Amino acid sequence: MSSRSPVSIDKVYPNNLGQFRQIHSSSLPVVYSDTFFQKAIETTGSVFSRIAYYNDAAVGCIFGRDVTPAGSSTFAVEILTLCVLPAYRRSGVASELVSSLIAWTRGHLSREAASDDSPFTSARVFLHVQTSNSGARAFYAAQGFTPAPLPEGAAPFPGEAGLVVSGYYKGRVTPDDAAVLERLL
Ligand SMILES: CC(C)(COP(=O)(O)OP(=O)(O)OC[C@H]1O[C@@H](n2cnc3c(N)ncnc32)[C@H](O)[C@@H]1OP(=O)(O)O)[C@@H](O)C(=O)NCCC(=O)NCCS
């Protein structure tokens, strides 16, 4: 007998945007603007926003976007937010959300590769995480993310293996420094 996963993933639409916002405010210390949430329902193709349901309850979300610099051969996707309601953590919800974003990124790359004049030869998914957020850092390590390398000649941040953006959160959380993590595809 096969057991079906209780986790399902759906797009964000005007009619579940309220749940998407609610999950953010119940799971993250940073308050996001109306403009930020309006972008989650854009249909331009450069935004990846999804909501996760555990059985029928909306419990998690991910928000990413294409930030590929002009002329780059690497398709770059930034995860802006990833969050799961506390009661539903360690049930594989965020893993499913990240897998869906990785599949979207790979899909983009392979569609591009099918065209003769594709500019892309690789993809990179990256994110900023508060340096002190050990739970999220352990999660991302389990998903194959590693610290983004320091630019040549840059001084390392104390206790960090890779790139850290000092003051990234502009004093909204303490510490307000963010480690940059990445996964190359
Ligand atoms: C980080 C977060 C998204 C993880 O969500 P989740 O649904 O609990 O993650 P999963 O259940 O898919 O975890 C998969 C694996 O990641 C690792 N992991 C996840 N959370 C962890 C934690 N707090 N501590 C250590 N390892 C952790 C484990 O290896 C876990 O597998 P296991 O449960 O079989 O041991 C969730 O804790 C969260 O919403 N935190 C608050 C918001 C946040 O910090 N977001 C990230 C900001 S960039």
From TrEMBL:
One of its GO terms (cellular component) is NatA complex. Keywords: Acyltransferase, Transferase. One of its GO terms (biological process) is mitotic sister chromatid cohesion. GO terms for molecular function: acyltransferase activity, transferring groups other than amino-acyl groups. Residues 7-175 form the N-acetyltransferase domain. CDD domains: NAT_SF. The keyword rRNA processing does not apply. This is N-acetyltransferase domain-containing protein. It comes from Fonticula alba. The lineage of its organism: Eukaryota, Rotosphaerida, Fonticulaceae, Fonticula.
